[in-house]
What does this fold into?
Amino acid sequence: MAAYLICLTSGSGLPVFTRSVGNVKPTPNDVIGSDILIIMYLDEVVSRLAFVVVPSNTLLCTLILPSLVLIAVMGRDGAADDVHMGQLLDNVFNAMVLLYGLDDLTNIKNVERFKKEIRLCFKLVDTLIQQSALSTFSDVTHAVDVMVTTEASILQSFLDTFVEAADSPYGCLIAHGRVIAATTKWWELKATELVLLSLLIVSFPQCSSRDVPIYLPHGSPTIPHRLLTFELLGQVELCVICGPTPTLVELEREVPRFWQAAVDTLRSASQTSPRNFPTSMDVDSNILGFLLVNVQSNRCLSSVNLMRERDEPAKHEKRRAVL
It folds into this structure.
């Protein structure tokens, strides 16, 4: 994983922002000034993505875009490979498109104003570069994390009915950062969009409801939509992608009417975490953890707590690291 993520304007090399992993303090630009000069040289000779080891024995991965240069910086300690770092930068760029829009991102007229406005992406960007602290695997698999529950078909019926009332084909239920039900159109989104939308929900502070403008990086990078979310239970979010209507207030009034009868079902489904699949499914006791990826549907199922062990987070983190 990168120690730092740096964003510069293309050509001029003006700093836009720096984000860091964990407890590492953001580095001043002059500390890595010589490294940045190398990257700005690469801007002239490399088409898009490049990896280079600079004299400070630091690995730089750079994603060169029409208006911006994204740089991942890390020591040569083997903590991440080129593919992982390249995917990280792609995800960061698409996260910026998701919340800021492609037009404004590729046509920066006022750098100082852009530096202030792009801060709205920081929560999602931080989630991406620090995702090793989460229990999900989407940063590695490029597939959205799911949870398999015995209540899935019942919840699917509730969800389909609600999104129809919301006049939207896009809806999903997310519990503990994992999708437990989604509409057909939601599953038709590209893998990057599925992953980023789920991580965006995880990055939000707890809130009963919200209305967030979003752009779909592949489906609609220049035309905004609205992501409406409603907290049905603790760690259980209902998400709908809408156009200009209905308003958040209008749809919020409908939530109790459609979902009150599903509260017990939602609670039961939520309790599938952290095992993430039903206890009725037997697994060999020698299996401590697994990661299952469906590359066609862009979904992944994982568990490092098959026996529902409690109060052993260090053990679970170690298993996740091994996977």
The two ends are 15 Å apart (CA to CA). The chain has a mean pLDDT of 85. The CA atoms of residues 149 and 269 lie 6 Å apart.
